[in-house]
Amino acid sequence: MEALFFYLFGGLALISSFFVIFLRKPVHNAVALIFTFFCLAGLYLILGAEFVAMIQVLVYAGAIMVLFLFVIMLLNLEEEEAIEGRGNKFRRWLGGFAAVVVFLLLAPVWLMQALPVVKGTFPPEKVQELGNTVWIARLLFTDYLLPFEVASVLLLAAIVGAVFFAMKRM
Amino acid sequence: MELLTYLALMGLKSIAVLGFLLFAASYLVLGERKLLARFQVRYGPNRAGPWGLLQPIADMIKLLAKEDIVPQGADRKLFLLAPALVATTALLSFGAVPWGPELVLGGRKIEGAVADVQVGLLYIFAMSSLSVYGIALGGWASNSKYSLLGAVRGAAQMISYEISLGLSLAPIVMLSGSFSLREIVEAQEKVPFGLIQPVSLFLFLTSALAEIKRIPFDLPEAENELVAGYHTEYSGMRFGLFFLGEYVNIIVLGGVVANMFLGGWKGPLLPPLLWFVIKVLAVAFFLIWVRATLPRLRYDQLMHLGWKLLLPLSVLNVILTGAVLAAWPKS
Prior knowledge:
The structure holds two protein chains of two kinds. By secondary structure, chain A is mainly alpha-helical. Chain A has helices at about 1-20, 25-45, 50-75, 80-85, 90-110, 125-130, 130-140, 145-170. Chain A folds into two domains: about 1-80, NADH-ubiquinone/plastoquinone oxidoreductase chain 6, subunit NuoJ (Four Helix Bundle (Hemerythrin (Met), subunit A)), CATH 1.20.120.1200; about 125-170, no CATH class. Chain A contains eight helices and no strands. Chain B has helices at about 1-40, 55-65, 75-95, 120-140, 145-175, 180-185, 195, 200-210, 225, 235-260, 270-295, 300-325; strands at about 100-105, 110. Chain B is mainly α. Chain B has a two-stranded antiparallel sheet. The relative contact order of chain B is 0.13. Chain B has twelve helices and two strands, in the order αααββααααααααα.
């Protein structure tokens, strides 16, 4: 059952990420990307991480991509402008190089026949006990308080920066 | 065998809820027209059947029989997809709304919800945040100025109010200690949260009105500026799907308010399911009342209200609730 859903969501995620790259209109790319995020949320659900899955849909699919779409719609990007960059040789080489590097990084994973089973501190049984949400909250506000606060300061800095630029324009 | 019974049960429940939602949504339209008419000292629809009771059926036949037009220059695929998105996200979000207590039938526990999700509240938020796409894509794909303006307004409004929508319910989650709507209802055994957290109720209702684009906040479809906003170019049943989505959203909102603030299916004398329906209808009546009473906001007022009033208030509410809970921890 789990395997069935894994291949369903995994396969759909792969197909839709191909669409993100190969479709011509920017809006269609964005829609394909939203669908990819949705499939990733499905994969998180299979892993028993309901909280992360919902946040994935809520934040990535529901909020960040709306902003992307917003920008695309307002700028009204059309096909020609999007394709213009294709002639750029340097960019092509850069893209190819990046693809090779990523492939080399992933190669060891494929070469591995089976991943060694290492039992972490949070096996599924332990997570089930209290539920995914409670565990995340506990760890976030005890053991990982400092990284959490640092991340929030970083976000605050980004907000202040955005407001500063917006004020300058006005 | 176990799996089969489970699937059969799920299927039956889904079909029952879907049937109820579609029926309730179509009669809510009639109810709204009737009530609006009464508020304005008119009669409202009363031609089709006794008291106009057959009006929804006549409307449905009309919508289904109408020609489905795709405008020239429209992005065909997205244009066809958008209304379905609006209707499905609205219908799906009701899946996590519990409507009754757990039933034990032949040694098998049957929960009174399509799916009692641990993170039910987040699931409903996720679905409502996805419904923006129906509006944004529909308006953009129509390739018309009015539709695009409506879509941009809709997207901006929904992003802005989503934050206060989420934060306004945070105190309730803090009080009950759970995202599951069932556990939240159980936590209201003694006092409904609407009495403990009236500020939260007010903030939630206001943000939710903006989120489903009902009248004081219906700028994305403001008919006297934008024709019909994001669904200007739609006809027939595709327009009907936008309409359906809107009314299903009212029912979902009613269900969420009933569960979060009014004690869900709990109440004296009457059976639980009936209590739940009464509470949902009460919220729907309130929304119609608001529609009959308030004028539409101007766009800057809308943004002002969302960012400068509702958001700080809901943050303050969260902080205060946290302080109170920290000072007097629950026994």
